[in-house]
Amino acid sequence: MDQEIEVKFLLKDHDVLMKKIADLQLPSSQERVHEINLRFDQPDGGLMAQRQVLRLRMDTQARLTFKGPGITQEGVLLRKEIEVVVSDFEAAKRLLEALGYQVVMMYEKYRANYLIGSLVMSVDETPLGLFVELEGESPAQVRDAAQTLGLDWEARINFSYTALLSLFNQRTAHTFRDLSFENFADVEVNPSDLGLHFAD
After folding, report:
1. What is the distance between the terminal CA atoms of the chain, rounded to a whole angstrom?
2. What predicted TM-score, i.e. pTM, was given to this entire model?
3. 158 is a domain residue
4. Mean pLDDT calculated for residue range 36-50
């Protein structure tokens, strides 16, 4: 309860991934949808300093999420996560701003979800590339799902998309605040720009 257990992988071939999903007959739990995320912090960066996340997300519904500092266990990222559905995205944004929080980053992606038993597999099309995120009930379940999908476990990622953008900026001398398709329209991103390797 209130815990996130997940890992990501960078992939190079969307068509091969979708064929694998079809061959495994994985049921869809969410059709492909555009997702907008706003990350908030205090003016002094207090949440980031404590490795905490306050996020407002809009896809098929609006959700407000808190995440605590992450730890790595058996190669998988574990962190406290509390998420609630809110009825009005813009009103929730105004409420957070009235409390003194401010938007420090926007990131977007297209996401589709599939199920491997009780584990949720997300196919994320992001400005940085194609990722698969596996979120399960235990590190062992996550690792088994990666094996089922034929993913290279040694290429796993325990960073958030926020952290990956920061790594990209550091390695390429860009200064993007937002991980948006508009910002990356004319930017070619290579795995080496992220310090990553393809897992497929």
Report:
1. 31
2. 0.93
3. yes
4. 96
